[in-house]
Amino acid sequence: MTDNTISSAVIIGAGIFGVSTAVQLARRGVRVTILNDGPPANGASGRSLSWLNSARMRSEPYHRLRMAGIDRYRTLSARFPDADWLRFDGGLTWDADDEHNEIDAAYRYEVSLGYDAQWLSAADVAGVTSGVNASAITAQGAIFNPGEGWVDLPALIGLLLKEYSTLGGVLVTDQGAARPLIEGGRAVGAETTMGVRFLADVVVLATGPAVPRMAAESGQTIGDGTPVALLVQTRPLAHPLRAVLNTPRVALRPGPGSTFSIDADWAADEGVTLREDGGYDIDNSVVAALLAEAAKVMEGNPKLEVATIGVGGKPIPSDGEPVVGALKAIPGCYVAFSHSGATLGLILGELLAFEVVTGSEHPLLSTFRPQRFALS
């Protein structure tokens, strides 16, 4: 049931966090309007590798939240078993052959948490997953996590928006960017750059890398570690690779229509330049080098061709942990800002909607409050 004091909400941002939260609120009977500065998924959600995982080493609260996130995708996958936009074909990762190799430590940590993990030699990989160039795997071996997968976020967002529309939700994409309206010390809605106001009981900031700046404009601090990210999607290619690969020089995953999505931090660092007008210049030679690195870890070293390139901020809080919940200094204002937007996409929307309509704090989010930055 919906709390009687919350009957309307404005969500700023039509990425996965915004749309997921909007659908959950609409299911609870709240009248919801989403404001976005263009088509849905035009920000970070449209350029995400979208690896569904809780691999490697992180805090236990963060691990539990991510596992809950994967659980929701399992439920969704059961509803759409033949979907080409959501797959659970596992993840494979290995490190460079140097003093920073942490495969041993990562494997032991994952096992300690009960995370499904197999430590494999290069020769053993073909027995559990296809399409990998075994010669690229370093001597320390690789970890295969059979419970991992990937999702195509624009496709998922499109699916959620269909339900949102049937529930009476409104999507506004032609009024420019929006900002929260603060009157009398509380959030009362949002206003677009075209001057249109949308009044509501609560406002949710789900604008990806822009959340810290928007919070700061309202006098609130959210630690920001957002880097620039570059994601390349390839043209269709028939290839047997099914698992998500996270390797020393490249990360890649299959995608709908026999495509592949590819990224690497070094490629963004070396290949993207911010222009004075706020746009980006892309070094095509770096993109070519990134494709070459991807081909090296794929069986047969296939020729990969660029279909699209996405560039922009990758939302990452300064301490690496999600930032979710009410801005307590501004009643009625909530935020959702985190890395791993794909893995957390469904669960954060669910938990944030729970908090909005009940006025209660969910224990899974207890360590991820925005207020921790005000105390540091």
Automatic annotation (TrEMBL):
Pfam families: DAO. InterPro entries: FAD-dep_OxRdtase, FAD/NAD-bd_sf. Residues 9-353 form the FAD dependent oxidoreductase domain. The chain crosses the membrane at residues 6-26. It comes from the Bacteria. The keyword rRNA processing does not apply. Its EC number is 1.-.-.-. GO terms for cellular component: cytoplasm. Keywords: Membrane, Oxidoreductase, Transmembrane, Transmembrane helix. GO terms for molecular function: oxidoreductase activity. This is D-amino-acid oxidase. The lineage of its organism: Bacteria, Pseudomonadati, Pseudomonadota, Alphaproteobacteria, Hyphomicrobiales.
